[in-house]
């Protein structure tokens, strides 16, 4: 049975890369029925896109996202840095699907400011080639990490995250994440938003930030490479969904959504945009 959710936010899926956990994401998407679905950047990784690598599971995610829009879900695709090619199509609308750079969401008497977050990243804004090189290195690290974790699982041992270890132990990485969250929150307070919702840094989070001018709640939807997380809003409450914690509650893939799809047609659609 599908679970009704008012709002679902996912980001940093990076379809088209080896690290993307498309099968797990598809299983999650098949288990929910959201009124609003917000894709907060880096859904298709155009920076690292290769025609030689876009598996059927990745195409099925694209099909599922389109299916949501055709079945009544409001779908907002907010562009990120890895799918920045879509920014030339900002404000494009097709039925229930809308492409935008940011989105303001009204939740009763509160307002949420939603954007990807790469605007805070100096390496992306001023040294794009360095950021792209780093993206390729990260993808290789994740591919190697997946191989190691496969071996660990076979041996009955716990999974290990190389990038997580780096982020948690390298002072510059810890400072970058802290600065990112604080900058986003202070801007939201300055502009009188109750919530600020980002992606980009692959760090799922919900926390309150206060300063002399006020307070807001900072939220980050994480990613579908390592944390496998999403933000959900239902009954006036935000919560983080973690696939690894909830996968035992998910039913098998929806047979209607898992039928053979026209891969050639979808691939043509993706490559035309890229």
From TrEMBL:
<keyword id="KW-0464">Manganese</keyword>
<dbReference type="Pfam" id="PF00149">
    <property type="entry name" value="Metallophos"/>
</dbReference>
<keyword id="KW-1003">Cell membrane</keyword>
<dbReference type="InterPro" id="IPR043461">
    <property type="entry name" value="LpxH-like"/>
</dbReference>
<dbReference type="GO" id="GO:0016020">
    <property type="term" value="C:membrane"/>
</dbReference>
<dbReference type="GO" id="GO:0008758">
    <property type="term" value="F:UDP-2,3-diacylglucosamine hydrolase activity"/>
</dbReference>
<feature type="domain" description="Calcineurin-like phosphoesterase">
    <location>
        <begin position="7"/>
        <end position="204"/>
    </location>
</feature>
<keyword id="KW-0472">Membrane</keyword>
<protein>
    <submittedName>
        <fullName>UDP-2,3-diacylglucosamine pyrophosphatase LpxH</fullName>
    </submittedName>
</protein>
<dbReference type="GO" id="GO:0009245">
    <property type="term" value="P:lipid A biosynthetic process"/>
</dbReference>
<dbReference type="InterPro" id="IPR004843">
    <property type="entry name" value="Calcineurin-like_PHP"/>
</dbReference>
<dbReference type="GO" id="GO:0046872">
    <property type="term" value="F:metal ion binding"/>
</dbReference>
<keyword id="KW-0997">Cell inner membrane</keyword>
<dbReference type="InterPro" id="IPR029052">
    <property type="entry name" value="Metallo-depent_PP-like"/>
</dbReference>
<keyword id="KW-0479">Metal-binding</keyword>
